[in-house]
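Encoded backbone
================
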Amino acid sequence: MKVAVVGATGLVGRNMLRVLQERNFPVTELIPVASERSQGSKVEFNGKEYAVCTPQQAIGMKPAIALFSAGSGVSKEWAPKFAEVGTYVIDNSACWRMDPTKKLVIPEINGDVIEEGDRIIANPNCSTIQMLVAIADLHKRFTIKRIVVSTYQCITGTGKKAVDQMSAEREGTEPTTVAYPYQIDLNLLPHIDVFLENGYTKEEMKMVNETHKIMRDETIRVSPTTVRVPVLGGHAESINLEFAKPFEMEEIFETLRNTAGVVVQDAVQLENGAQPSAIGSTENLPYPMPLFTKDKDEVFVGRVRRDPSLENGINLWCVADNLRKGAATNAVQIAELLVQRGLV
């Protein structure tokens, strides 16, 4: 099976290559794709070196699947051209997410929507993916009425330029490139993507609109605040949920423990239901942190507790590797669905 990775030299593209390799995806021929300035450079995959080619060259090779992670402009121009030659495009940009003719997919939640004619399939925003993986089964059981979410998103979500900026700031040198309007190290920026007329940012409205589309339920009210934090890997989210139905906390933990792709790390109720030895110490008190989610594909959930200010409400803390499940892994899982259903 010929598989193209468009944007193979970028942060997410390199992670796509790693995930394809780790999950033993049936690649018979890899086609790494990047811009013309990267043409001829080499990437390694499964112990072999492959030369980077241009999108036009890749189209001529007619790959079965093309994983895109090169930005909305590239996706808008090239995804339809790949689709025209019969390639299934799985796009990580925002270009096609809200297009009513395109499917927006998290395999654990709505993988059933993919059909043979879906030649361009959209990968959701990283912050949306981890939130919905964590709460989708809770919605099935208790019906979510409202979500209030605050995100703490690491700088790798912006890309290499942001990593370079923070590294220079930490070293006390002048950054050669600037990704943010203010210093990011030792700081927090409540500003991800551009501001819109309603006062929310584009990133925040992505979480609103994508939640409705993926969950197939526009009655869920979503109020997000997205914040960039000086962390190298992993997004964290504080999520407050209001349910239509009453619940017992043990039912909440049971649902989370049985949710595909979720790992419960909670200081009050451990994975096996046992109680920690001492609430006042750090020993045996697990909770999710970006420090320990790097290179993991699961969504980690903890700090789960009833909201005393709200009838039928809970709070939870959710962390995931934004370059893995938030981007590369979710895209590869969509490709795996195509294989499982015999579409490629």
About this structure: DSSP finds nine helices and 14 strands in the chain. The first strand starts at residue 2 and ends at 6.
